[in-house]
């Protein structure tokens, strides 16, 4: 018989968890204060603080080496804090591990399965370790795997394996669910279905902590986000809070016969536009970066009316979470960011 995967083996070794009704307490589901984590002399997490309210979906984002996975592992109870405090459902997740694990679900980046078992047998196996676990058919229906129940795990696609990971994570009806890159490997339809499932869980009172590299996923789902760079939180709040003040861009095709000097300069920070195209029949395009779109558009339309030209193909694009994420990563300095990431990989940080 093959050796049990590490995470499954840990289930054998822990006391049998019992199903509990969701705690209606108003205290935070997660409370992280001045968390620090070290790998030798390397400081991977540098004084991070945040809370996750009960019933909300909180997205923890960051580049590779930013410290988000280490932070997540401390919250899940896999690591003791190097300094600072972490409370999950009012408990210390490392010291009070058995009590915490009864009440949470964890979907890791990569689960360990026996490829010879079918999907149904895998879920049934896990149900044997969970008192009061939900029925196998119910959970497989929820993650859209009921039609694959008799298929061996080794024959599943990558996206189907992720859905099986999710099924096992919600098997105990958790109060708090940790999702680490939940839609990696899924096709667009499966991703949308997973989003719908996560939204249903949240609507039913489950608190969700999400990490993802799909920033549109966080923007679509999260009540609040925190973006980590180099071990610190660089931005946090609602998506609207994080995007506030990040401005927008206004783009249009430059009318034929006009030179760059003919285009208007908008009030700071808009200034002169950036020009692209103009070669080999490609229309020239002007792009302005602006803080406030209303006054900028009014100024452009006044200029166009005075010149008797049309603003052809005009497009206004507000900042996205991806724009903010990339800007924060760049603000850290390319050389320093690369050095930090290399040190993080050497220390085993994802």
TrEMBL record:
The protein's location, in the record's own words, is: Cell membrane
Q: From its record, what is one biological process in GO terms?
A: response to antibiotic
* Cellular component per GO, a single term: plasma membrane
Q: How does it sit in the membrane?
A: Peripheral membrane protein
Q: Which GO terms describe its molecular function?
A: ATP binding; ATP hydrolysis activity
Q: Which residues form the ABC transporter domain?
A: 30-255
InterPro entries given for it?
AAA+_ATPase, ABC_transporter-like_ATP-bd, ABC_transporter-like_CS, ABC_transporter_ATP-binding, P-loop_NTPase
Q: Which UniProt keywords apply?
A: Antibiotic resistance, ATP-binding, Nucleotide-binding, Transport
PROSITE patterns for the chain: ABC_TRANSPORTER_1, ABC_TRANSPORTER_2
Q: Which PANTHER family match?
A: ABC TRANSPORTER ATP-BINDING PROTEIN
Q: What is this protein called?
A: ABC-2 type transport system ATP-binding protein
Q: Which organism is it from?
A: Actinacidiphila alni
């Amino acid at each position: 018989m093959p050796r049990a995967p590490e995470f499954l083996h840990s289930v054998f070794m822990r006391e049998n968890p019992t199903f509990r009704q969701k705690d209606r307490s108003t205290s935070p589901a997660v409370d992280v204060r001045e968390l620090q984590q070290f790998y030798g002399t390397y400081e991977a997490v540098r004084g991070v603080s945040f809370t996750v309210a009960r019933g909300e979906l909180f997205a923890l984002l960051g580049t590779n080496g930013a410290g988000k996975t280490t932070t997540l592992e401390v919250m899940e109870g896999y690591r003791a804090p190097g300094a600072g405090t972490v409370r999950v459902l009012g408990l210390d997740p490392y010291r009070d591990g058995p009590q915490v694990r009864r009440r949470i679900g964890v979907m890791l980046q990569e689960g360990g399965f026996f490829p010879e078992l079918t999907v149904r047998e895998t879920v049934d196996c896990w149900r044997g370790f969970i008192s009061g676990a939900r029925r196998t058919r119910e959970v497989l229906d929820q993650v859209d795997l009921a039609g694959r129940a008799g298929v061996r795990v080794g024959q599943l696609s990558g996206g189907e394996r992720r859905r099986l990971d999710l099924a096992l994570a919600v098997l105990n009806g958790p109060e708090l669910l940790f999702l680490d890159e939940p839609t990696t490997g899924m096709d667009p339809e499966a991703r949308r279905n997973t989003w719908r499932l996560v939204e249903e869980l949240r609507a039913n009172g489950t608190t969700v902590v999400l990490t993802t590299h799909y920033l549109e996923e966080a923007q679509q789902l999260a009540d609040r986000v925190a973006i980590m760079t180099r071990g610190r939180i660089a931005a946090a709040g609602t998506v609207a809070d994080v995007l506030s003040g990040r401005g927008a861009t206004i783009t249009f095709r430059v009318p034929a016969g006009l030179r760059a000097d003919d285009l208007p300069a908008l009030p700071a920070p808009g200034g002169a536009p950036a020009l692209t195209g103009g070669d080999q029949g490609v229309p020239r395009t002007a792009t302005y970066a602006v803080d406030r779109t209303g006054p900028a558009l009014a100024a452009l339309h006044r200029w166009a009316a005075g010149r008797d030209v049309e603003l052809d193909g005009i497009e206004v694009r507000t900042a996205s979470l991806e724009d903010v994420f990339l800007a924060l990563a760049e603000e850290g300095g390319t050389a320093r960011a690369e050095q930090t990431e290399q040190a993080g990989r050497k220390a085993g940080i994802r």
